[in-house]
Amino acid sequence: MAANRSTTADRRAKIEELRRAEQARERRNRFLTIGLSTVVVLSLVGFGGWVITKENKEQEQQEAAAKAPIKDEKSWDAKKLGRNHVTTPVKYDMKPPVGGDHNPVWQNCNGDVYTKAVNDTNAVHSLEHGAVWVTYNKKASPADVEKLSSKVKKTPYSLMSPVDDQSGTIMLSAWGKQVTVDGAGDPRVDAFFTKYVNGPQTPEPGAACTGGVGADGQGGAGMGQ
User: Fold this and answer.
1) Distance from the Cα of residue 216 to its chain's centroid
2) Last residue of one domain, picked from the residues 67, 95, 118
3) Within a domain: residue 109?
4) Residue 102 needs a FRET pair 20 to 30 A away by CA distance; which of 20, 123, 128, 188 works?
């Protein structure tokens, strides 16, 4: 009888010991779960903060670039540049033109790269819509032409074409704005794009850059803006 009581007590003690061990494991697992969750949350919060900081910094840099003057940039009074729609040739005071009376149909400027000269009066209409027009003459190196082409193709509201009789090897034009650069790697290229692609100089912001005149010289459906 005493032996049975001893065996029962031993069994209860063993069961109690196993229960305490199981509770201890559960507590450790809870602590591990909480700890890992905390690490994950803190990591996500830290990463999110880094992304926001990075985005804010990039935005600040873009805003600063948009306000900074561009070395040797030429400007014309936008109010004095004609904006009439004409179907006759126009004599412009600068080459390439940066504004003035122009054709009723714009040159397509949705990142369009033309290997042949385009009509000035169509391109000027593109500038009125906020496009940046990249032009080059025969002195431009193939590497520079390729690099500029790549940039234009990735940039809506821009176009590129050769202008053999322009004074500078590479020139960038927007409505009332123009700069001659040393090469495709000149930092003023990025600065000009940042500042003037659909920039504050645009007479008709948000107007179309598609549906106009294409590489074949044929007009599209859009007219009158």
Assistant:
1) 28
2) 67
3) yes
4) 188
State whether 30 and 140 are in the same domain. no
Record the pTM. Answer: 0.72
pLDDT of residue 82: 95
Rg, Å, the chain Cα set? 33
* pLDDT < 50 stretches in the chain: 221-224
What is the predicted pLDDT for the residue at 206?
A: 92
Query: Backbone dihedral region of 185: left (phi > 0), alpha (psi from -120 to 50 degrees) or beta?
Result: alpha
The domain in which residue 30 lies consists of: 1-67
Helix crossing, 142-153 with 187-196: angle to 10°? 30
> Residue 4: its pLDDT value, please?
56
* Helix (H) or strand (E) segment spanning residue 170: strand 170-174
Distance CA 135, CA 137 (A): 7
Whether residues 131 and 190 fall in one domain:
yes
Question: Are the C-beta atoms of 191 and 65 separated by less than 8 Å?
Answer: yes
Instruction: For residue 162, list its beta bridge partners.
Output: 136
Domain count within the chain:
2
